[in-house]
Design brief:
alpha+beta; Uridine Diphospho-n-acetylenolpyruvylglucosamine Reductase, domain 2; five-stranded mixed beta sheet; three-stranded antiparallel beta sheet; 10 strands; 44% helix; 10% strand; globular
Length: 419
């Protein structure tokens, strides 16, 4: 059986105008969850849905090495790192880096994020008005460097933030010259650090990411790419934090008060808001699905946002309902191994709920920019009248996992509308 085909010779203009909705809209138009089209002058299969995602993540059927077409994915998911390699060496590289994502690493990252946020608060109070996304982005650059054991002088924070941010956002479907230049600068910086350690230079902390990669069998450039692959996803969390603040503002009735409610709120934010553009892969070998042939070498796009709003998988998919995650764990189709992302988001949610008072000015434009990715609000969420909130001090020895704050929220001390 032939694949349904989208009308027209090449649908690149339509895809670029609506990168987050093109595939789902065409699926609805054709009455199918999979169709063939031509993008960037190359034949491609587009698909969405639960079953499609299961097939897409099957490494026996799909390869994600070299499958990226120009700007089809953010530069942070550049080919050649452990986040992007299929089979072969990527398992060894992941084994090298995954110990850093154990409980100790997660707690350390969370503590660092909380400390950086607390240090920023006095400056935010003086400013009175801040652009949340931009401020959090700079905080996360500091967190990422500290967590990875990378020295970062205060004078360099601005330029490193600009470069790392260029690798994560914005995305508009086309290759970005600025992102390319930023990647070259970041790689040169990290390459220098790897070589310094290999030549006997000091490290910020024993067994940190920089030291592990510098002591590995990877060549200098591959080690630098792996180091970048750790930094950029952390910086990209700024977009999710922005979505969290937007959701708190737009859906005050869903404000979480317990740890379980926080977890559900975060998962719903990740489902509801458009973060990743369609993921791309190539068919590794011929196979059939639903009677349709997927030929070897054909490019395939998985609609992440459309899958997370598929009407067959979600009740009221276009409504923000954190309670859908209260007692069950529906399958979110997002990149795997994101416990660090969830940890940082939980800390950010606590900061916004507990440690801050603020208001959102009515004059800002909170509409999502669906032509770029992540599809941030045009204003990137402006906060004003920012000030620290006084709460009971954390008891000595209290674990830095949010449990104390959970009890504080449940006590009724906080939880009302901020600002």
């Amino acid at each position: 059986m032939r694949l349904p085909r989208a009308p027209g010779f090449d649908r690149t203009p339509s895809f670029l105008r609506n990168p987050y909705t093109f595939i789902s809209n065409m699926c609805e138009r054709l009455g199918t969850d999979v169709f063939e089209t031509r993008l960037f002058f190359r034949r491609a299969i587009c698909m969405r849905g639960e079953e499609a995602a299961e097939y897409f993540y099957d490494e026996a059927r799909f390869a994600r090495v070299g499958a990226h077409a120009g700007g089809l994915v953010p530069a942070c998911l550049d080919r050649g790192n452990a986040l992007d390699l299929d089979r072969g060496g990527h398992h060894a590289r992941k084994a090298l880096l995954f110990p850093l994502l154990g409980m100790r690493g997660l707690v350390r990252a969370r503590r660092c994020f909380a400390e950086e946020w607390a240090e920023a608060m006095p400056w935010w109070e003086v400013q009175g008005k801040i652009v949340l996304h931009d401020e959090v982005e700079a905080l996360l650059v500091r967190v990422a460097c500290s967590w990875a054991g990378i020295p970062l002088a205060e004078i360099d924070v601005g330029r490193r933030t600009r470069d790392l941010a260029a690798l994560t956002t914005p995305w508009n479907g086309l290759p970005s010259l600025e992102a390319w230049r930023a990647r070259k600068r970041v790689d040169a910086w990290l390459l220098g650090l790897v070589r310094t350690v290999r030549q006997g230079g000091p490290v910020e902390e024993a067994n940190c990411a920089l030291e592990r990669l510098a002591r590995s069998q990877l060549d200098d450039r591959d080690a630098a790419v792996e180091l970048r692959s750790l930094l950029t996803p952390i910086v990209a969390v700024a977009a999710y934090v922005t979505f969290v603040a937007l959701a708190l503002h737009r859906y005050p009735q869903s404000r979480p008060r317990t740890k379980a409610e926080r977890s559900a709120f975060i998962q719903e934010v990740r489902r509801f808001y458009p973060f990743l553009p369609p993921l791309t892969a190539e068919v590794r070998r011929d196979f059939e699905w639903r009677g349709m042939t997927f030929p070897k070498g054909r490019r395939v796009l998985l609609d992440i946002h459309g899958t997370n709003r598929h009407p067959d998988a979600w009740f009221a998919p276009d409504e923000f309902r954190p309670e859908r995650f209260a007692n069950v764990s529906p399958s979110l189709h997002l990149p795997r191994g994101e416990q660090l992302t969830l940890t940082l988001l939980d800390e950010a949610l606590l900061q916004l709920l507990v440690f801050m008072q603020y208001s959102l000015p009515d004059s800002q434009d909170l509409r999502l920019d669906l032509h770029r990715g992540p599809a941030l609000p045009h204003s990137r969420v402006v906060l004003e009248q920012v000030r620290a909130r006084s709460i009971p001090p954390r008891p000595s020895g209290e674990p830095h996992d949010g449990s104390f704050i959970t009890r504080t929220l449940a006590s009724g001390i906080v939880g009302r509308k901020l600002g």
